[in-house]
Design brief:
The protein is of the alpha+beta class. It has four helices and 17 strands. The protein has a 17-stranded mixed β-sheet that branches. It starts with 7 loop residues before the first strand and ends with a strand.
Length: about 270
């Protein structure tokens, strides 16, 4: 099978802390991804299965351009773990220790953090109500929702609850309900986090268009920002997710996320 055979779509399966992705590099091939293809590949019983799909394409403004698809066929503006996985793959391919990636979020910087870890700057958080976005003007620090969550934009919307025990939350019920809250016109990712030590959080995630995930990079960034804004932590935070640990650092130049990545296998999808 030739690589430019439009009836086949080459892909990689990758994950960051169990947050799993199908990665398609459209550079140099004729096959293309659309919503129907994304939904078919996302099916964990009849397809490959993923939380998000990341599609690589050419751009004159960065080393690569990334487009993200959710498993329901909607597009995501940001996906931190997938960005980190792709950055690691490209650095391993090229020998580079730093590169740039263009997303709907803007141009993101990535670098080798040593010891097999990869760091990505996810950009500055969006803290104004219209930038998250929310339905109307309000204070994003404490929303008028039971539990007074914090709203944060990271190129996609987030709703973060701080609770005594994140493990005790019925995430399947609460996440599905809150994703479609009327205050979030574009739906929202939902996080439940508990402070378990100094600058140390335990967090669980419901992703819009996906459901419960083992980890989420943008959700981790949003939770770290929300915790710092509320005075619960400083700006350098360890976050334990269901799939493992990320280190988040909110700096003057943006929110840096550092963690591991894994390349699971390569395959071909017949269109």
């Amino acid at each position: 099978m030739a690589i430019n055979d439009s009836s086949y779509l080459p892909f990689m399966k990758m994950h960051g802390l169990g947050n799993d992705f199908v990665v398609v590099d459209e550079r140099g091939i004729s096959a293309r991804v659309d919503a129907a293809v994304a939904v078919a590949i996302a099916d964990r019983h009849r397809g490959v299965g993923f939380d998000q799909m990341a599609v690589l394409s050419e751009t004159p403004d960065a080393d690569v351009r990334l487009t993200f698809w959710n498993s329901d066929g909607s597009q995501a503006g940001a996906c931190g773990n997938a960005t980190r996985c792709i950055a690691r793959h490209m650095m391993d391919q090229t020998g580079a220790t730093a590169l740039t990636l263009q997303t709907a979020r803007g141009i993101l910087q990535a670098r080798d953090a040593g010891e097999g870890l990869t760091a990505v700057n996810m950009g500055q958080p969006q803290l104004a109500w219209q930038d998250v976005p929310l339905a109307h003007e309000m204070d994003t620090l404490e929303l008028p929702i039971d539990g007074a969550p914090t709203a944060t934009g990271m190129g996609n919307p987030h709703c973060t609850f701080f609770v005594p025990d994140a493990e005790a939350v019925d995430l399947a019920v609460k996440g599905a309900e809150l994703e479609h809250h009327p205050l979030y016109p574009e739906r929202t990712n939902v996080q439940f986090a508990s402070l378990i030590g100094t600058d140390y959080l335990r967090m669980r995630v419901w992703e819009r268009g996906v459901g419960i995930t083992l980890a989420s990079g943008s959700s981790s960034c949003a939770t770290a920002v929300a915790a710092a804004r509320r005075g619960l932590t400083g700006r350098d935070v360890r976050i334990d997710l269901d799939g493992g640990t990320l280190q988040i650092s909110w700096r003057d130049d943006g929110v840096w996320m550092t963690g591991p990545t894994a390349h699971v296998f390569d395959g071909q999808w017949r269109l």
